[in-house]
């Protein structure tokens, strides 16, 4: 038998942030999805560079109201999101539950307003290539928002009804990181869809 | 834990550990496997079956082209066959087979008890399998894709491809990309967070580096084809106009997106191949590979440059000259890191005590064939030459030299090297040598004449040619070579089956190699290592003292895994891994149904939302909380460290 040993029995049963495997899984997903967003934005710019006018013909740029309102909601959601993350890192069950629910409310509100954003685009997906890419960009982001809200809802239910293991708090904290990603990807898309055709 | 234990206790510990980590048995249990070795074996075997199927399709093409004006295959079937051949080889064989080796060997090589996210890896396998079955069922129903493995619009648009064939291609891509991306994330996390204590990044085996670099390439390249194939399906299904010139779309946009993925794809296949070559050259030369750092930097440099070459597939589309010049220069530059690796291998062999084994024979074959492929690559990288050779058999010859040379030869080398670890039995030296020479001679007979056919102007993707062209003789030689190639593969199969039945027992380390996969039994136990070892060098079995410390204190009644820091692999925390589960399979079934139905109706998104939700929630929801030792709320004191809190003194002894 080997006399020299490295005893790891006293190590903690998990860790937050980049030390955890969950962070690396989320990081991988963020890289994948981030690349997909970047490419979709690339398609938008590519098609624009090949078009004589943008938006083509007599199409008006998307109406500002709903998109701008949604941007405000999404930016504001960063506050409960951060508080959720902090509560999870404190291993504070009540705080995690409360802020998860508040964050969820913001997510649901965003999705409701998103329903009004599509008609405000002033173009259908099958009108021309401009319409196609505008719908693709908005659709791609909507897919992320919808799935992340559902995923957060499942997590919230688990944190409410239990059974709750200590490592779930790592899941809650990393879930907040992914929400930040969804918030951050919206900003260039918002600028591109709503403002670029007006300004450039 | 430091007290002296008697032998009987140790035996019981090992038995307990095995029971904790073992996959369930029986028919139902088979669908719940999550052990990376079990999934890795399935992945390897399935990918190899697709290799054989795609090889049979190639044989049909060689029969058709063996003589002029042949009527063995009609043009419609021929189109399906060359599309199926390329698609299968690239998406269902080359990428998955390399990832399969990663799934099996990366955890073993870094001394981990499991791959990270084992259920995700199981899900990946099911997606891969269902995607492949979907493609071949479509083919046998005469709905095989027929617009080439690159599926260019406008040919692939609804107007020119009105049946579902092009959609089946586009959705197969989605299946395989989901599978590949899942594995990429698992491999990166395993290599960065599950290395055994002492294995700093600078001691990580070259093959693991190759897998990490490949995984990052997968992550950045594959979203391009997912976005592109989704846009293509949308064009075809709900009349968007991404690639439709009449409505402001752009057909070359597809080519940009496709090659932004598909050029890196070549390196996704080739980089693990070079990792295999480094491994086998080192073991056969009985020394650590020469220029470890140079090789690792070359792998990363190849990956970076691999993303700036895609336009060299599009020289014939009429791009601006400046762009063409840039991409020619970039294409030439890739020779620098590849050349660096070749010189490092030569230096390793030169300064070591080289022993020619069967794996080494395949590596030498790789050198010969890949270097020829690299040289013709420099030729087609130059725009004026490319415009002459474009769409001729010269290009077919070039990329088969690169891909079979760069990936299939190293793969066979890897199989001869590692199958003893997987099965516990050696392959035959004699049959292996015979298989190599049949394959090597057959390969050159088949593909070398294609260079000349290309010069003579024979175009790719034509189902026949008239006798007056004079291309008959060289085509006949090529078809004859394919017979040799086929026998090479058959001899390998005989060898593999013979080895399973009567092969010599391999023992732990038949090649006397230095890396950790050889520090456990062949095949390894379910927990990989009964006593995880720590390491103090890059080749622990060669350079470390025999009494290196072992890791103790991991529980044997739950799937307890040690997580370490990224750079120096010092112990960080422990985490309990999930148990076998049927949910990855159920999720894969729901996802597959969703993917397949979405070829026919956009409402699939709605119909399949519920089953997907149920499957994924079932996967996530904890089944036996607390029963396996994790504390359940309420608990008074926290055990999780605060973010960035250092480990308390004495946490590791």
Structural commentary:
The complex is a heterodimer of chains A (200) and B (653). Chain A is an all-alpha fold and 200 residues long. Chain A has one domain (37-50, 58-199): Four Helix Bundle (Hemerythrin (Met), subunit A). Chain A is 72% helix and 2% strand. Chain B has one domain (38-519): Up-down Bundle (Cytochrome C Oxidase, Chain A). Chain B is built from 20 helices and 3 strands. Chain B has helices at residues 7-21, 26-30, 36-65, 75-109, 118-140, 165-193, 206-237, 251-285, 292-306, 321-333, 335-351, 358-381, 383-389, 393-423, 429-455, 472-502, 540-543, 583-597, 604-607, 609-620, and strands at 550-552, 560-564, 571-576. In chain B, β2 (560-564) and β3 form a beta hairpin. In chain B, α4 packs parallel to α6 (165-193) and α5 packs antiparallel against α6. The longest helix of chain B has 35 residues, at 75-109. Chain B is globular. Residues 1-5 of chain B have low confidence and may be disordered. The interface between A and B is large, with 63 and 84 residues. β1 of chain A pairs parallel with β1 (550-552) of chain B, so a sheet runs across the interface.
Number of helices of chain A: 6
Structural class of chain A: mainly alpha
- The average pLDDT of chain B is 93
What gap, in angstroms, lies between the N and C termini of chain B? 11 Å
Name of the CATH class of chain B: Mainly Alpha
Helical content class of chain A = over 70%
Q: What share of the residues of chain B does DSSP label as strand, in percent?
A: under 5%
| N-to-C order of helices and strands of chain A | EHHHHHH
Number of helices of chain B: 20
Summed up:
Chain A is an all-alpha fold and 200 residues long. In chain A, 72% of the residues lie in helices and 2% in strands.
Features:
heterodimer; A: 200 residues; mainly alpha; Four Helix Bundle (Hemerythrin (Met), subunit A); 6 helices; 2% strand; elongated; B: 653 residues; Cytochrome C Oxidase, Chain A; two-stranded antiparallel ribbon; 3 strands; globular; disordered N terminus
